[in-house]
Amino acid sequence: xxxxxSKRLACKVIVAIPYATPVVGVVFKPMVRVLGITxxxxxxxxxxxxxxxxxxxxxxxxHHLKLATIQCMTCVALDMPxxxxxxxxxxxxxxxxxxxxxxxxxxxxxxxxxxxxxxSLRGRLRRSGFWxxxxxxxxxxxxxxxxxxxxKTWIKVGSSETYVPSMNDFGLCLMxxxxxxxxxxxxxISEITSIMTDPVIIPPHPCxxxxxxxxxxxxxxxxxxxxxxSNADTFSVLSYNILSDIYAYWSAHSKCPRWALxxxxxxxxxxxxxxxxxxxxxxxxxxxxxxxxxFFKPKLAKRGYSVTYKKKAMQLYTANRxxxxxxxxxxxxxxxxxxxxxxxxxxxxxxxVIERLEPGKRAQGQIxxxxxxxxxxILLERVENGSSLGAFxxxxxxxxxxIHANPDFPDVKLYQVASLVNGLEKIxxxxxxxxxxxxxNSLPGSxxxxxxxxGRIYPVSSQERTDPLGICRLLKLQHSxxxxxxxxxxxxxxxxxxxxxxxxxxxTKEPLFTNLFGGYPATLDYxxxxxxxxxxxxVFWSFWTLxxxxxxxxxxxxxxxxxxxxxxxxxxx
Length: 573
Fold this sequence. Notes:
By secondary structure, this protein is α+β, with helices and mostly antiparallel strands. Helices cover about 20% and strands about 30% of the residues. The chain starts with a helix and ends in a 21-residue tail after the last strand.
């Protein structure tokens, strides 16, 4: 026993919550760490968790001297005065139901004139801390575990590491408790650590994107989105930087509530929006590796998508593990099959550039050029219901990339874009339609943007920071791919009405912004396409997503795709 006693309180439990406001329907997971007190490593242990709800004592709306034990959740849903929603017992509520039902009807009529379907408004009840979400007279009979903390009585509602608040928890505070127990003997070896949240809230309904339909050809004016996918040669593309959770820190997004930055909240909204676009090809950037495997890949597979994924070369250490993000390209497997793919790591292609720097600058070149960014290039061929249509079927090459973000490295941005395009040039020589989708982190009119759309650029322009190591003079800064921006090509067509034109930059012919970071709008995201092999362009756009309809008319035999267009030394300029 002496050895057991010596282990008591041998460690302490540290608990932190990602945000203070739990949200109905969103997994709430505190961060728990166990630290040793007498030694760096704590003894072998398990961790015990418990969740509790607290509800202040409120009196009955009928019998004012009695405490309320039941709340009508229909009153809450109808935004009725909360005082009228409390009752002291189940029988009290049943006795008052005829009058109370009439209150529901009046509240409904004030919201929707002419609606008299008040009998559908059942009185949904909740009691104490275990609330029943059912009809009149249904109250949970489960025994409740009560604990006293600082003069307040809390009701135990869970014993796992996570908790998902329900509608019945709305307006109530949660308390999370945790302590460590000895794995061999089962006695506590730490004090109980507890943390309390703010009241549970109901999340606002996400505002739908205000999609602006820009018609390209007169005959397309009455075509709805769904009909596009039925055309044998027409397909839709979506490009979206979804903001990896490892970059969603509040200091960078201080105008956003902390709970709204939580991945458990954002992921469902993102999935709902992505699925809603019903695109044939989906290019996502900043897809966190674990979120790809356990969320996006299985969720979109159920929707009929195949996928290829490429992680960035660099990883971040967070939450006791290394994690990275990358690019994911999904495509409907009943419309396309993968012919080949190329995974481009800009760090590897940078080696040939670094070797040609002056010897005294090569160490700096290693640091400056190696940023971990990647590009994923996939060659797709059209199929019908998942089966090949025969010889010489249309093909499309889709490049998905995320270029380095730091504005102090314009030479690195230009190097990455030039490296990508120089390799794609070999594929484009086969007359295969080409799409370049992604977050270029480059403003319209910047050197990377000019290089893409004009095919030639001189080393870093005077408007940007200089090229301190002379990297740009070592790059091949010209290409022959007839690339056009999806947005600017429409504005140049003259088929954009005046209202839509106001949402475009008249000088650059690109949108006013595709990104809002720190309150500053900027255009950083693009879809470029080859102008001669993809035509009949129609764009649906909002300020955070790019969406295309394109028709490819390339049905000639294709030469074998190049083995690897990027793993070759860059030619001298």
